[in-house]
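Human: I wish I could look at a protein chain and see how it folds. This is the protein in question:
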Amino acid sequence: MTASQKRRFAPCDVAVVILTYSDRWQLLKETLSAALAQGAGRAIVVDNCSARDIAGLAGAEFGNAVLVLRSDRNMGSSAGYGLGMKTASQLPGTELILLLDDDNKPQPGCLENLCAAFNEKAGAESPDNFALLAFRDNCAPSADTIIYSTFLLFHLRGLAAQVKRQIPFLRQSAVKPACRWQRVPWTTYGGFFFHRGILKRHGLPDARFVLYADDLEYTYRITATGGGIYFIPEAQIVHTGVSWDKEVPARFARRLFILLEGSECRIFYQVRNMAYFDSHILCRSRIMREINRAVYLGLLSVLGLCTGKLKRLRLVWKAVRRGEQGLLGESPDFPLEQPDCRKHCSSERKDAGPQPAMK
């Protein structure tokens, strides 16, 4: 057992990394207050070209406890979180890192419970081979098994369960409640807790994703190489914002409707990156993926024709092709620094909820 494994960590060994953007100081302030009140050693805020003087506001409110990294351009979520993670890992005294969205408020005991669970697991596993996941009230953990050869994470095998979720008396049996130490194949950034050794072993998020799915790809690196991501429900985080996709009616084939709602910028990066993720990383059977692709796009096309969303359908098809061809990076059609893209990706959802990919 290494010295790092023998040591018992506490909240003072934790650096909290938060990405903020647009005009979200009030949400960020609440999150910082909660994290620092629990004894976090340091908080790092990546200011992704927001509208406020975050460094001045944070300095006046929290003093030297908060380090603000200001970017004069919108880097996207992947580069933004990458910068925060790299900086946190280099801070003296920092051993553990907790990633949060700026509207993820840790509840009392969250950091203490995460540290206790980490100390327990580190007695049996190397710290650079596992991570923990806190409970977020607006985001259930991923299924504990991976279904390969999906298309935008859709698979015919899961269709029956999707149907059961729409029937009230069958819904409870269709959803398996998460439990402590449940393994998840990947997760979002919000609530992701890990040792800095993870960065030495797995590097930083892929900046080519720009927005969306970069968190899934990064966290999947851990499980794909034999490591584990474990759910810790007693470490709780409350979401204080409003997610854009929650405005979509909870009806059958919710994911299909989400693709027909929201801004073009958001949908392009979401679809493109997910198409890349499942075609280049999750695909085990090309034939099975093509079947799932045909069914999914067929359903989406019917929905688009019925609702008159032909322009949106063309955008989805374009994004799918770009992802499957591996054409990542910031798209010339949706440059993050352009006013039109800012209108779509930020201003239209001012003070909206956790959109790690939109930051």
Observations:
- The two ends are 39 Å apart (CA to CA).
